[in-house]
Amino acid sequence: MFDTENKDFTFRQDTLKLRLRLISCLQTILGLEPEVRRLCPEGFLSREFEAIRSFMAVAEEMRLEEAEVQRIESATRVFLDEFIAPLLGSSLKQVGSTRFIQ
Questions:
Q1: Rounded CA gap, 32 and 101, in Å?
Q2: Domain tally for the chain?
């Protein structure tokens, strides 16, 4: 009986870790929304940010797999490296200030 309870606890713990990693990625992207809205034309990425907010609303109920979370983490890194960093970098040069992406 203990073995079954232990497996269930481990499964729940692993699922919680996956959810936390997923939510961290989504919150990272959503945290950049105000800056993106300030720098980009009106409506730029609006649908994408809304989709991320909708996805977060159901993330608690989703069954996640390690490979899926790794794919989302990778996509988040690409988004930050290839899109957001250059976007913020160009705006930083214009205003002459220094900022860091966390």
A1: 9
A2: 1
